[in-house]
Design goal:
By secondary structure, the protein is of the alpha/beta class. The protein is 34% helix and 18% strand. Strands 9-8-10-1-11-14-2-15 form an eight-stranded mixed β-sheet, sandwiched between helices. Strands 3, 4, 5, 6 and 7 form a five-stranded antiparallel β-sheet that branches. A two-stranded antiparallel ribbon has the order 12-13. The chain is globular and about 70 Å long.
């Protein structure tokens, strides 16, 4: 069997007035997803377990078949793995976002942008390097044993090997508080929280004056005015996917978080030139890479971040456009390639295939935040049949009798449900 999982990150949404009270999935032209839904089954899966917030770290882990209550230790450790960081057992790993906060006028003190205006890798690395040097100069006691590794764009990883613990610290993702006063959401809970809050305050004093930010302001771009620390955790332990499910997998993504999960479950990350986490990504290259990877792997997961980033900006037009691009350049070509493997239900000699398309979570353009509503999914391929045809929409999935809760059980159903046998390589 050949399997493909396509994740249009944050693709699910609520009805939007500007779309005639339709969701982006309902408003977009998605002929390939419509065909997939007609061939297979539409349902809903609860990817945010009780006690967790809806975030890509939790929801993607859940989607890929791992119970976050067992395996999740924090978001940052997952991203660290993608960067090749090998922390010690007792080291604490944190995410460092470069963010834009309001510094004057009526927006003073508000969280404006969790991505610092989609800052470039080059700009971000210059800012982070100089910020760490500033921390070491003015507060060496706070950063003794601390190392910061740049990631992609605004995303960076901080490892604290000083012996401090952040176990009782509560932090908040910056994308969860758009337009809100950031001072109300600083880390709290013990001495570790005081260290993080002090480092963040020092960054807010230093970064706005940096020459990189001055240049961005001159270009009409949002500056990185602060370093936001969150997502702390220690190194997780996860059973390899092949050992768990008997299937060899690979991940295609522009996001370190998904690449980190792939690393922990023993998947290869496939590099694809031209793909980004925004709508400027090369969708067609990602589609071609997914098709090509099927020759080497049993399962290929294709993750596309663009719908989520558009949602966090409240940009429903770009969200619709990104969903249409995914349908045209990824779903269509991948479905055509999969169909060549045949259906063993009708041809015993066929290898067979299955395809799953589902967002990890809702991301609402109206609030620019994630939402824990069970997400829609569509699954088609060998032995996947439904007597009731439904469109791939949020409303149709909510009406379906195929509901998976807890969501991590969906992977087992996708790989093995209804199969007479699984032909793994």
């Amino acid at each position: 069997m050949k399997y493909v999982v396509i994740i249009p990150d944050g693709g699910a949404d609520l009805p939007i007035e500007g779309l005639g009270d339709r969701t982006p999935l309902e408003a977009a032209s998605l002929p390939n997803l419509a065909r997939l839904a007609a061939m297979g089954r539409v349902g809903a899966a609860a990817t945010t377990p009780p006690g967790f917030e809806a975030g890509s770290d939790v929801c993607s882990m859940d989607l890929l078949g791992y119970d976050p209550a067992v395996h999740h230790t924090g978001r940052a450790p997952l991203e660290a793995a993608a960067l090749g960081i090998a922390p010690g057992e007792d080291d604490w790993i944190l995410r460092l976002n470069l963010v834009t906060t309001g510094t004057e006028g009526e927006r003073d003190g508000l969280m404006l942008d969790h991505s610092a205006g989609a800052i470039t890798d080059v700009e971000a690395r210059a800012l982070v390097a100089d910020l760490v040097a500033h921390w070491r100069a003015v507060a060496p006691e706070l950063v003794r044993g601390v190392e910061v590794t740049p990631g992609v764009s605004y995303r960076n990883i901080m490892v604290d090997a000083s012996g401090r613990s952040y176990r009782d610290v509560t932090t908040v993702p910056p994308h969860a508080i758009p337009g809100e006063p950031w001072s109300r959401h600083l880390p709290h809970g013990g001495a570790g929280a005081d260290v993080l809050a002090r480092l963040m305050a020092l960054s807010a004093e230093f970064l706005p004056r940096h020459e990189v930010n001055a240049a961005r302001v001159e270009q009409g771009l949002r500056p990185a005015t602060m370093a936001w620390l969150w997502g702390q955790g220690t190194r997780p332990r996860m059973t390899p996917f092949r050992e768990r499910y008997g299937v060899r997998g690979a991940m295609i993504t522009a996001v370190d978080l998904l690449a980190g999960i792939a690393s922990y479950i023993g998947w290869d990350r496939l590099e694809v030139p031209g793909i980004t986490s925004y709508h400027d990504t090369d969708y067609a290259a990602q589609g071609r890479a997914t098709v090509a990877a099927l020759r080497r792997y049993d399962l290929v997961c294709c993750h596309v971040e663009a719908p989520d980033e558009a949602s966090h900006q409240g940009d429903w037009k770009t969200k619709v456009a990104s969903l249409e691009a995914i349908d045209t350049h990824i779903v269509g070509p991948v479905l055509a390639a999969l169909e060549a493997y045949g259906d063993p239900a009708f041809n015993p000699d066929a290898e067979g295939w299955r395809m799953l398309v589902m967002p990890d979570h809702f991301t609402l353009c109206s609030t620019r935040k994630h939402d824990a509503t069970p997400v829609p999914f569509v699954m088609a391929g060998a032995w996947v049949r439904s007597l009731v045809r439904r469109p791939f929409t949020e409303a149709a999935s909510a009406e379906s009798d195929l509901r998976v809760d807890p969501g991590y059980e969906l992977m087992e159903y996708f790989l093995r449900g209804g199969l007479a046998a699984v032909r793994g390589r």
